[in-house]
Amino acid sequence: MKDECFGIVPIFGNEADTLFLLIQHQAGHWAFPKGHANPGESSAETARREFAEETGISDFEMLDEPNFTEHYSFLKDREPIEKTVTYFLGFVNSMEVVLQVEEVQNYAWVSGEEAVKLITFDANRLMFEEVKAYLDGR
């Protein structure tokens, strides 16, 4: 079965001092905010909505391009799931976070180096390396 989600890599600051927002999902892993689309929702609309719901942040500028994708697979009820998550870059204007406690247990604003260490899964870490390379090349 295929599964698809959309999210945002939240960025605060400038080139000299950039921080990234990671959330700790209720399941325990650290990653970027993401979620599934509602019926009729575009990928960008989903990413914006999920980000606002999970973090309480509504004052941000999201880039439609480029976007970054991670792929991974896992078993759910013994059924193989092929998951694709597409992330957009979101430049936030405030570091104030209000967590959606049903889905998120913690958060951290961290440097790029700290993010690489904190991110739980390899696929998410590889996607973030692409984000950092893009940002470094701007």
Explained architecture:
The chain is built from three helices and seven strands, in the order E-E-E-E-H-E-E-E-H-H. It has helices at 43-55, 112-118, 122-137; strands at residues 2-13, 18-25, 30-31, 34-35, 60-76, 79-92, 104-110. Strands 1, 2, 3, 4, 5, 6 and 7 form a seven-stranded mixed sheet that branches. The longest helix is centred in the last third of the chain and has 16 residues, at 122-137.
**What's the level 1 CATH class?**
Alpha Beta
Order of helices and strands: EEEEHEEEHH
Our count of domains comes out at 1
Low-confidence stretches: none
**Total E-strand runs:** 7
Strand content: 35-45%
Number of helices: 3
The CATH topology annotation reads as Nucleoside Triphosphate Pyrophosphohydrolase
User: Which whole number gives the mean pLDDT?
Assistant: 95
Q: What's the name of the CATH homologous superfamily? A: Nucleoside Triphosphate Pyrophosphohydrolase
Q: How would you describe the shape?
A: globular
Approximate helicity band: 25-40%
Task: State the secondary-structure class.
Answer: alpha+beta
Query: How far is the first residue's CA from the last residue's CA?
Result: 37 Å
Rounded to an integer, what's the Rg over CA atoms? Answer: 14 Å
Describe the oligomeric state of these chains in a short phrase.
Answer: single chain
Q: What is the architecture at the second tier of CATH?
A: Alpha-Beta Complex
Largest β sheet strand count, sense and barrel closure: 7 strands, mixed
